[in-house]
Amino acid sequence: MMRLSILTLAGKCLLLAGLLFAEDKVKLEGIKCPVAGDKAAKAENAVEYKAGKVYFCCGKCPKEFAANKKKYATKANHQLVATGQATQFTCPFTGGEIDEDTRITVAGANIAFCCENCKAKAGKVKDAEQVELLFNDKAYEKAGFKVIALGVKATHFGSIESLGDARACADLFDANRQKIDGIIVTLPNFGDERAIANALRWANLKVPVLIHAFPI
């Protein structure tokens, strides 16, 4: 599985590792609110969760979610995967290396297993039961789903603007170098390129870097 890191600059910078998307690239089509269930999730109603973001249908649902995170954890975990924010590294049942030939789609989220036996186990249940089986907190952790990102408290809103921010970014990359096969730098606006360049140089990952820039 190709694993990428994305550096996004939009005045400020957001660093994400794994097969992830910048916030404006998160796939919300067909995504439902984890609290309301049947209502469409909206970009403006988002809260941070496990280094990613969970999206809701209205301004009230995030409050319910915050008060009962354990109750909605499975649906929130599933949404992180379905929106392309989290990358799977291991089997949700055994924690073993995944076999891409076993990959299936569960309510819009792709997930793979270590073997055909585990795939068959997942196939014994359907719909909500299947989501619960594969995306509960224990399975999510065993599957190695990760959204590796600078938190909003690590730097100013998780941005990379200064030498200190660049060092924090480089340290994060260095600690996760075995999980990163490439880097995408997205530049909606220009201005903080030096900090990004320093982060990449100090991390010294020796992986391909794709520069994605928008015209002014």
Write the layout of secondary structure elements.
Layout: E1 4-10, E2 12-17, E3 42-49, E4 52-56, H1 61-67, H2 69-82, E5 99-106, E6 109-113, H3 116-123, H4 127-135, H5 137-142, E7 148-149, H6 163-175, E8 182-187, H7 193-203, E9 209-213
Parallel strand pairs: 1-8, 8-9
Antiparallel strand pairs: 1-2, 2-7, 3-4, 5-6
Helix pairs in contact: 2-4, 6-7
- Strand content is 15-25%
H/E element string?
Answer: EEEEHHEEHHHEHEHE
What would the principal axes of the Cα set say about the shape? globular
Mean pLDDT: 82
Widest beta sheet: strand line-up: 7-2-1-8-9
Radius of gyration: 18 Å
Number of domains: 3
> What's the assembly state of these chains?
single chain
Give the biggest beta sheet. Answer: 5 strands, mixed
Distance between the amino and carboxyl termini: 34 Å
Give the tally of β-strands.
9
The unreliable regions are 8-24
- Total count of helical runs of at least 4 residues: 7
**Helicity, in percent?**
25-40%
Structural class: alpha/beta
Give a structural overview:
The chain has a five-stranded mixed β-sheet, covered by helices on one side. It has a two-stranded antiparallel sheet with strand order 3-4. Strands 5-6 form a two-stranded antiparallel sheet. The radius of gyration is 18 Å and the shape is globular. It has three domains: 21-82, no CATH class; 99-142, no CATH class; 152-213, no CATH class. With 216 residues, the protein is an alpha/beta fold. It has helices at 61-67, 69-82, 116-123, 127-135, 137-142, 163-175, 193-203, and strands spanning 4-10, 12-17, 42-49, 52-56, 99-106, 109-113, 148-149, 182-187, 209-213. Helix 2 crosses helix 4 and helix 6 (163-175) runs parallel beside helix 7. A hairpin with a 1-residue loop joins strand 1 and strand 2. Residues 8-24 have low confidence and may be disordered. Helix content is 31%, strand content 24%. It is built from seven helices and nine strands. The two termini are 34 Å apart.
